[in-house]
Amino acid sequence: MHELPWPGESEEKQSRRMIIDVHTHYLPTSYLPMLKTLTAISSTGPAASSTPDARRMLAAMSDEPGMIDQRIDMMDDAGVGRQILSPGSMAPYATESRLAVEAAQMLNDSYCELTRSHPNRFSALVSLPLPHIDASLEEMRRGLDELGMVGVALSCSVFDRSTAESEFEPLYAEMNARGTTLVFHPSQNGICSPFINDYGFTTAAGASLEDTAIVLHLIKRNIPARFPNIKIIIPHLGGLIPMQLARLDGQARTPDLLSPPSATARGLYYDTVGWGSQAALRCACEAFGADHLVPGSDFPALLAVESYQRTFEYIKESRLPDPEIEQILYRNAPALFDLDKTPPQTVPQHPRS
What we know:
With 353 residues, the chain is α/β, with parallel strands linked by helices. The protein has one domain (15-336): TIM Barrel (Alpha-Beta Barrel), CATH 3.20.20. The chain contains 15 helices and ten strands. It has helices at residues 11-15, 32-35, 52-61, 67-78, 97-117, 133-145, 169-178, 194-197, 206-220, 223-226, 245-251, 261-266, 278-288, 308-316, 322-336; strands at 19-25, 80-86, 122-126, 151-155, 157-158, 161-162, 181-185, 231-234, 269-271, 293-294. Strands 1-2-3-4-7-8-9-10 form an eight-stranded parallel beta sheet. The chain has a two-stranded antiparallel sheet with strand order 5-6. The longest helix is centred in the first third of the chain and has 21 residues, at 97-117. The radius of gyration is 19 Å and the shape is globular. It starts with 10 loop residues before the first helix and ends in a 17-residue tail after the last helix. It holds the Pfam family Amidohydro_2. GO terms for molecular function: carboxy-lyase activity; hydrolase activity. Keywords: Hydrolase, Lyase. This is Amidohydrolase.
């Protein structure tokens, strides 16, 4: 595996480095027909689009012939030793419980098969059949205990309900009891705002606003304080949050908070997906600290504008101090995931709902 060069460092030391990309997406071809029947998929999302860009995106995310090998080649070129996989905004959510459970089981089984065949390169997050809480608790147990998954994937909202709402608290209680890692992802609903969606910014701006909103909702609900064993990762450098900490402390009208908004926000983790903006990266690093940033790529979303390798090179070129760059790229992510977990030799059988 070829690592990104580190000035003045021996090849032997470089070879011991491994980037863990915590924000990558994978959609097996067997899951794609199911997407057409899941009513939670946004009409603006790639699963619902027939544009050439969307088709290329889906192909890069898939297990079509040669695509996994191509993905691994890109990982080698970028110095990425392992990807943490999730479906992103194409989660298995459906109003009908049977359909949601079937989709989640299919998706998680497929993830297990990939991680089993490439145990040193891929790990996966368990996807939940939301908004069905009891079924989601059972699938979380199956994914974490039987399929070797290393965390939980959760959208910022489900059918336009924030996942910080009280009905989702049994999920947080279970994750807290397990001390697991929770990775959020935008639903691509543009925070349900015509001021965003009617102007065509559902993905370009709406995703970051969703990231912002879920942090605010977690703060308001005191979820990090009440469920302190969950390691929470927010994508895209936290959206607007790194620029708002002082204002939140000064103007938030939330007397029921257990700690200042800035303190809660600084207790979360944030991935480095910033579309190459070194200014945004430096802002997040100053706001949250280098010890709370983890490498992320949003693979394959940025391949339309930059190489996979470039997604991580921008961190090294950010003019942050070398020890902080090293911490972000190599030290933080391994502490958040139990990468010693191994997938089963065969995918466990389960009763279809």
